[in-house]
Amino acid sequence: MSLPLIEHFFSAHSAFAWLGIRRLEAIALERGRRIRHVPVPLDPLLEAAGAVPFRARPPGHVTHFFGREIARWSEIRGRPWIGRMPTHHHADYHLANRVLIAAEIAGHDPGPLAADMLTAHWEADADLSDRGALSGLLAARGLPDPLIAAADAPEAVQRHDANRDEAITRSVFGSPTYFVDGDMFYGQDRLDQVDRACLRPYAPTPQD
């Protein structure tokens, strides 16, 4: 009998997925849950939700979310960070997403590699669009380098597209988003709520 799920929709470069992933892992372990990691491209989700991509938002908004908020949460979570937006944050991170997908297709748990990617990006300024950097992360995790080539194969590309479509259908509008038994929680600052939902569901929203 398989364990019940926590579903984790995220992008491989997401600051708040980085801040939340280890807490998420701890919750899953404590509550006897399995994590379904779902890497997604963010811009199509934001567009579908009618939101403005972060790179197009006013400087004050970006400075707050990618400055003060990260500083506070990195202190709370005990995670060091580089103190600024990573140099290559706006590079194409879809390959990194698809490497995670390729790892899962090959039978590996993508969670530890996802944590490594997020950590490398936000704590060591790694460029997640660089194949050499991704190769180094795979090697450190003991995973085969051909997973990078597999990330460009049709199965991984199609799975990435399917993840995007599923996320849009389920009204996911940011990273990270979690589902516990169908109930959606947006943002790593909702992880205490995720933990509670693993114990007992919240009452449904009253209908008008």
Please tell me about this protein's structure:
α4 packs across α8. The protein has nine helices and four strands; from the N terminus they run βαβαααααααββα. The chain starts with a strand and ends in a 9-residue tail after the last helix. The protein has 208 residues and is of the alpha+beta class. The chain is globular and about 50 Å long. β3 (177-180) and β4 form a beta hairpin. It has a single domain (5-199), classed as Glutaredoxin (3-Layer(aba) Sandwich). A four-stranded mixed sheet has the order 2-1-3-4, with helices on both faces. The longest helix is centred in the N-terminal third of the chain and has 19 residues, at 59-77. Helix content is 53%, strand content 10%. The chain has helices at 15-31, 42-49, 59-77, 94-105, 110-124, 131-140, 147-150, 154-169, 191-199; strands at 5-10, 34-39, 177-180, 183-186.
Q: Secondary-structure blueprint of this entry?
A:
Layout: E1 5-10, H1 15-31, E2 34-39, H2 42-49, H3 59-77, H4 94-105, H5 110-124, H6 131-140, H7 147-150, H8 154-169, E3 177-180, E4 183-186, H9 191-199
Helix pairs in contact: 1-3, 1-5, 1-9, 4-5, 4-8
